[in-house]
Amino acid sequence: MEFGRALSFPWKNEGWVSKIAIGCILNLIPLLNLANYGYGMEVARRVAYGDAEELPAWDQLGRYFVRGLAVGLAAFLYMLPGMLLAGLLLAGMGFEEDYAPLAAAIYFGWSFILMLMMPIAVLRYALTDQWFTMFDFGWIWSVIGRNLGTYLAILIVGVVLSMLLIILGTLALGIGAIVAGFWSVLMFFHLFGQLGRRTVTG
Question: How many structural domains comprise the chain?
Answer without folding.
Answer: 1
